[in-house]
Inverse folding.
């Protein structure tokens, strides 16, 4: 039981990793690779300025989840997580 | 004129180093006091930022100014890989703690069969990759120091031309190198315990990380918001001034193609995990897995913050320098200087020192550990040097190693200096670290990944990396002829390092990563598929892969070590390498968690665990591969080897109580105990079973001899000298057996090297016993004997499980003993009964078997003993003068003793009857004769003695405390009692008995009885009593004596309601016929 939950957490992490890899690589990143500027800042730069903290926030949320889970019953918590 | 004097700068730098020393020292002290600073996720996160060296602190801006966004992947990669930390990094940490991993080389070596080759390859690889990197750090410190101490004007005007005129008088790099080496030695090699964390070092690194972040943020804010009006303003002005450099903000350009972008992300992802210094800080120095959770987002956040202002600073630098990128690496420093903020520049300088120093300190310690453990140790061990104490040599070698590594970097910087290779060493070392990735990640999740595959993979990767990355960088640095680049090795076009096998159109890193990874992975995967791993390797692999799976009590260890070293010998071995103090504290920690028997020794099956522990402890100091070699050599030299435990014993000791074999031994023992009727045979068989199954040299059963309070040998199997096994044992606490018996506990000595009873020790030594145990044979909580087993060959047989079995056997022997005892008792009772039967017959023979038939009187007598024998006696003796003596007596009790006294009385009377004429006289004689005997036996006798003369119908009588006989006066129709003064026998000497006489008439009845009649009880506890007897006698007027007796008996039976009488009953009836 526990192992499958561990696994589901691991899968979620790997999914995020792959998603992250996709989002900062060609061709996805090509979307932002334009001449346009927003607020005087090149779009690509702005993309990183926003996307980077966003991904850190995602990790932070995950970790908070992990901690909340381990505070009471980790198993139960992860269950909720995956059903959501 | 310099804004800040060189002396100030030096003072501040030295001050900063002093601060670092103090912080590190403080951290070490806190740790010793048990208030570790490392027990803090912030410190862990900050220490991870050792990732940001001066190559990033200064270099990021430089790369941004020249290459645009290509600086960014170096930090994006770590942010991405952080997603995997909770399982990947945590797993590495968990394994490293379990295995006492000291470095990345050790990690790989441990995973792959503790291979010495593996460790050596990784170490060599690391030296190649890292030494130039150290050089780069030294260069950064030295160079920034020079810049800072230059006259201000030069910064603005002509920085590049000035750089050639830098003063060479003070070799700052040398001093910096020296200070950093000292730091590494002091805080990284104080003791020889790399597995223990270097708290001081880590805390210092964390502080440095904080300083460099603050410094960089300060410059960033100053530039972006001080010199410019925010981000937008910087970009605005840059675009206005350098519209042709817009490409800096785009990807897919010639400068930063998407492939390179991707490559850099991959490289940085791997580097942040597998650079030796990163591994060291992240894994080896990790004090708590929970810190990983915090670090997972804090470390990326740190990277984000330190990069936030890279682009503005780079752009500002370009704006200020008129687009000159030659000194772009030092924009961070020159911007505050040139705008007249020397103190800010000083802060940056300190930040730069931090970035460099952190990297140099950690790397030098890490690499020196690796060199010591994976290059030096194997050689030392191979040479088989015989030194008493290695620990001193080893620690000094490690210190020397640190010094060596730092100065290798220094000479690299001095001799080779500024070059392409040096500037790009950051990425080159990243690419090197990436080569470890398949072996590590594969090793963590793939069981088949094996030693040969990992060596092949890393080896191939290493070669390709060197060929496609290192050689080109050497060529570009001018150390090699460019011939190889243009024409390929041996002029083979397909072997051009930058266009290997004709692969064109990629940047150097992508090209190198592709080829090195292709070969690395291919070799790793193919060999893993086709080569079967050894058993020991598979075990090790499982330890890595299944590190999170709770291991069940490890029933797998079915090995034991023949001629196993003792605990002390293991300690001695460890002391040799890690010092006595460390070894002792390690072993005491270990023993705390072990089942140590009361003797403080370890059982046989725990010795392999101890061996593993010793190996792990040594691994924590010298690395896995050397530790393995040390242990193997040591055991080989002793002639010890791991072997499968002798069959049944192994499983009995290792498995739980329900082990089949254990049960079968007990079952066999129970069978023996129940089947055999011969107790001795039972004992012998059980001992034989014990000795055979467990290969004991001697097994003994002793039982307590209660009278002498000694333990007497009842059974013995095995050889023993006469004095030892066969001798009886006194009961005292001086001996183990005595203690086992007296305190009713099992005494186990698993190793006779450690004995605390001198009395026993002497004998044990003489007999060459190696281990033994005594367990009390207990019956209903009371020890009755001791079961002992001795071995002369092995130590540590008596594990907890085995002792349980042993005690169980003793229990069985106890039951057998009880059965035996009961049987004996039964037999005894049977014998006694037979004897009583004989006694009964004899006693019956003592009573008159038939009474004479006379014409004057009619007689009848009956004695009904309550048991086989009784104390009642009656007799009828005719004298010569035709008088008749009548005796009735009652000896108290109804046992053999009573019977004997009764017989004695009879003998006396019969012997003396001719000499003693009168009843009173007879009683008197009897009394004095019996006095002594009765007094001794605590018995007493009552007797009524009568003498009847048919001639004159006179009856004379005396009484010794007996119940009064009754006389039925036929004529008067009344009952009279006969009484005379007299005490019972056995009370007093010389008492006189009254003698009375009476005359009987024809038809009179004389009834003599013992108190069994009148004291016969009914249910209401009423006695039958004399009155009832008298009344009964009245009714018997016409009956014959025998009929009267029957009548009385039946009446008494009716009265009591029982057929059986509780007391002996004797009745004598005499009827006067004429």
């Amino acid at each position: 039981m526990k192992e499958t939950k561990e696994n589901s957490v691991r899968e979620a992490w790997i999914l995020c990793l792959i998603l992250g890899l996709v989002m900062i690589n060609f061709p996805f990143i090509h979307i932002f690779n334009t001449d346009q500027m927003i607020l005087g800042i090149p779009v690509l730069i702005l993309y990183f300025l926003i996307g980077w903290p966003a991904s850190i926030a995602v990790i932070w949320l995950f970790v908070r989840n992990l901690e909340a889970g381990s505070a009471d019953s980790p198993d139960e918590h992860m269950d909720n997580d995956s059903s959501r | 004129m310099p804004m800040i004097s060189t002396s100030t700068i030096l003072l501040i730098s030295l001050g900063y180093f002093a601060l670092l020393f103090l912080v590190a020292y403080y951290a070490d002290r806190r740790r010793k006091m048990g208030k570790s600073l490392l027990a803090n996720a912030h410190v862990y996160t900050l220490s991870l930022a050792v990732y940001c060296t001066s190559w990033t602190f200064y270099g990021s801006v430089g790369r941004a100014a020249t290459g645009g966004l290509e600086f960014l992947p170096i930090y994006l990669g770590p942010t991405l890989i952080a997603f995997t930390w909770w399982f990947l990094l945590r797993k590495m940490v968990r394994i490293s703690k379990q295995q006492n991993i000291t470095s990345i080389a050790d990690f790989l070596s441990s995973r792959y069969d503790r291979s010495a080759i593996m460790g050596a390859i990784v170490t060599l690889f690391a030296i190649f990759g890292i030494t130039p990197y150290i050089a780069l750090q030294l260069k950064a410190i030295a160079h920034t120091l020079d810049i800072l101490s230059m006259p201000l004007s030069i910064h603005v005007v002509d920085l590049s031309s000035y750089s050639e005129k830098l003063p060479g008088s003070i070799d700052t790099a040398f001093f910096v190198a020296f200070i950093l080496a000292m730091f590494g030695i002091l805080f990284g090699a104080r003791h020889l315990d790399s597995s223990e964390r270097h708290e001081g070092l880590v805390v210092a690194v964390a502080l440095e990380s904080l300083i460099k972040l603050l410094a960089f943020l300060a410059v960033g804010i100053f530039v972006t918001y001080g010199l410019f009006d925010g981000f937008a303003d910087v970009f605005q002005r840059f675009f206005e001034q350098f519209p042709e450099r817009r490409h800096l903000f785009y990807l897919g350009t010639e400068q930063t193609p998407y492939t390179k972008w991707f490559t850099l992300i991959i490289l940085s992802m791997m580097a942040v995990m597998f650079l030796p210094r990163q591994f060291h800080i992240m894994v080896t120095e990790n004090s708590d897995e929970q810190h990983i959770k915090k670090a997972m987002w804090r470390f990326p956040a740190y990277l984000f913050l330190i990069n936030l202002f890279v682009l503005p600073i780079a752009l500002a630098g370009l704006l200020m320098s008129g687009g000159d990128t030659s000194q772009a690496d030092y924009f961070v420093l020159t911007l505050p200087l040139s705008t007249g903020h020397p103190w800010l520049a000083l802060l940056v300088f300190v930040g730069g020192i931090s970035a460099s120093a952190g990297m140099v300190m950690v790397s030098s310690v890490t690499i020196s550990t690796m060199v010591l453990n994976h290059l030096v140790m194997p050689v030392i061990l191979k040479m088989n040097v015989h030194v008493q104490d290695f620990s001193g040599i080893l620690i000094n070698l490690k210190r020397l190693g640190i010094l060596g590594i730092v100065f290798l970097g220094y000479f690299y910087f001095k001799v080779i200096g500024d070059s392409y290779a040096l500037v790009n060493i950051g990425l080159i070392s990243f690419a090197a670290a990436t080569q470890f990735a398949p072996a590590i990640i594969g090793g963590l999740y793939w069981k088949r990944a094996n030693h040969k595959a990992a060596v092949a993979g890393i080896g191939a990767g290493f070669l390709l990396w060197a060929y496609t990355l290192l050689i080109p960088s050497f060529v570009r640095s001018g150390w090699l002829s460019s011939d190889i680049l243009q024409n390929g090795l041996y002029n083979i076009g397909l072997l051009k390092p930058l266009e290997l096998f004709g692969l064109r159109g990629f940047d150097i890193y992508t090209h190198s990563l592709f080829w090195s990874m292709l070969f690395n992975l291919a070799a790793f995967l193919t060999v893993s598929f086709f080569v079967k791993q050894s058993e020991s390797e598979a075990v090790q692999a499982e330890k890595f892969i299944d590190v999170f799976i709770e291991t069940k009590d490890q029933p797998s260890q079915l090995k034991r070590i023949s001629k196993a070293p003792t605990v002390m010998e293991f300690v001695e071995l460890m002391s040799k390498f890690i010092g006595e103090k460390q070894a002792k504290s390690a072993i005491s920690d270990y023993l705390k968690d072990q089942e140590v028997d009361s003797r403080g020794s370890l059982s046989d099956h725990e010795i392999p665990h101890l061996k593993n522990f010793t190996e792990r402890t040594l691994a924590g100091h010298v690395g896995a591969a050397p530790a393995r070699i040390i242990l193997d050599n040591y055991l080989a030299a002793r002639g010890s080897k791991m072997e499968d435990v002798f069959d049944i014993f192994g499983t009995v000791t290792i498995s739980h109580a329900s082990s089949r074999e254990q049960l079968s031994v007990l079952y066999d023992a129970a069978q023996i105990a129940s089947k055999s009727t011969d107790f001795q045979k039972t004992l012998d068989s059980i001992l034989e079973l014990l000795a055979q199954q467990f290969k004991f040299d001697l097994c003994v059963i002793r039982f307590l001899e209660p009278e002498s309070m000694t333990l007497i040998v009842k059974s013995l199997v095995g050889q023993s000298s006469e004095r030892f096994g066969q001798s009886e044992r006194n009961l005292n606490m001086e001996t183990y057996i005595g203690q086992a018996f007296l305190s009713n506990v099992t005494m186990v000595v698993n190793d006779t090297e450690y004995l605390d009873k001198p009395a026993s020790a002497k004998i044990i030594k003489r007999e060459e016993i190696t281990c033994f145990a005594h367990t009390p044979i207990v019956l209903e909580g009371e020890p009755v004997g001791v079961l002992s087993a001795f071995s002369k060959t092995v130590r540590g047989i008596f594990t907890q499980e085995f002792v349980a079995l042993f005690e169980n056997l003793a229990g069985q022997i106890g039951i057998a003993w009880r059965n035996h005892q009961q049987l004996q008792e039964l037999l005894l009772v049977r014998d006694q009964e037979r004897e009583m039967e004989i006694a009964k017959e004899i006693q019956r023979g003592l009573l008159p078997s038939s009474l004479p038939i006379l014409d004057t009187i009619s007689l009848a007598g009956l004695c009904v003993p309550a048991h086989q024998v009784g104390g009642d006696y009656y007799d009828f003796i005719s004298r010569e003068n035709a008088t008749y003596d009548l005796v009735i007596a009652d000896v108290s009790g109804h046992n053999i003793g009573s019977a004997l006294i009764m017989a004695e009385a009879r003998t006396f009377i019969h012997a003396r009857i001719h000499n003693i004429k009168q009843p009173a006289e007879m009683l008197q004689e009897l009394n004095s004769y019996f006095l002594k005997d009765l007094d001794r036996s605590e018995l007493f006798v009552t007797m009524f003695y009568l003498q009847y003369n048919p001639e004159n119908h006179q009856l004379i009588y005396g009484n010794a405390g007996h119940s009064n006989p009754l006389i039925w006066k036929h004529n008067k129709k009344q009952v009279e009692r006969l009484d005379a003064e007299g005490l019972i026998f056995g009370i007093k000497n010389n008492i006189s008995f009254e003698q009375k006489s009476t005359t009987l008439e024809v038809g009179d009845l004389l009834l003599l009885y013992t108190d069994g009649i009148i004291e016969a009880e009914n249910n209401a506890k009423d006695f039958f009593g004399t009155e009832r007897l008298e009344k009964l006698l009245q009714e018997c007027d016409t009956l014959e004596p025998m009929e009267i007796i029957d009548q009385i008996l039946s009446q008494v039976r009716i009265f009591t309601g029982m057929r059986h009488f509780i007391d002996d009953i004797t009745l004598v009836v005499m009827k006067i016929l004429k």
About this structure: Residues 43-71 of chain A form the longest helix (29 residues).
